[in-house]
Amino acid sequence: MAADAKTVGWIMSGIESALFYLYDGACLVGIMASHVDDLITCSQGPVHETAMKKLADLIFLKEKKGSFRFCGKNIVQNDDFTVTVEHVDAIEAPLTIRSLTKPSARTSTHP
Q1: What is the pLDDT of residue 25?
Q2: Which terminus, N or C, of the chain has the lesser number of Cβ atoms within 10 Å?
Q3: Does one domain contain both 8 and 28?
Q4: Is 68 inside any structural domain?
Q5: Would you say residue 103 lies in a domain?
Q6: What is the rounded CA–CA span in Å between residue 72 and residue 108?
Q7: Which domain holds residue 52?
Q8: Which of 76, 52, 36 is nearest to 4 (CA)?
């Protein structure tokens, strides 16, 4: 996927190989993150539209907008274009509490 993204104009981050940037000249117009075979983008404009159409020709893309799940997180793009990310499932999931045995006392050879 990374090679295909680069082919259509996305630039891989030098710090995180799952993070990509898309520029229109010197102006940042898109950010894309990947996880296994899932992508999430935040971008706009004709450069983004062209890059995503070209990427869709190379790999299978299923576009979701508005509200969706990504990597177990609930993503919502609000009417004012802000994005809300929540992970309520982790909070509301039942906890398993395990009994731990008391660690044995350590003996020191130092005076």
Answers
A1: 92
A2: C
A3: yes
A4: yes
A5: no
A6: 46
A7: 1-63
A8: 52
Domain count, the chain: 2
Q: What angle do CA 67, 69, 75 make, to 5 degrees?
A: 50
Taking the C-alpha atoms of residue 79 and residue 6, their distance in angstroms, rounded to an integer, is 31
State the pTM of this model.
0.68
pLDDT band at 99 (very low <50, low <70, confident <90, very high): very low
Q: Which residues contact 94 (CB under 8 A, 6 or more apart)?
A: none
Q: Which two tokens stand for residue 95?
A: 């906890």
Q: Report which secondary-structure segment, H or E, holds 48.
A: helix 45-58
Q: Please check whether residue 106 lies inside any domain of the structure.
A: no
Please tell me the distance from the alpha carbon of residue 83 to that of residue 101, in angstroms, as a whole number. 44
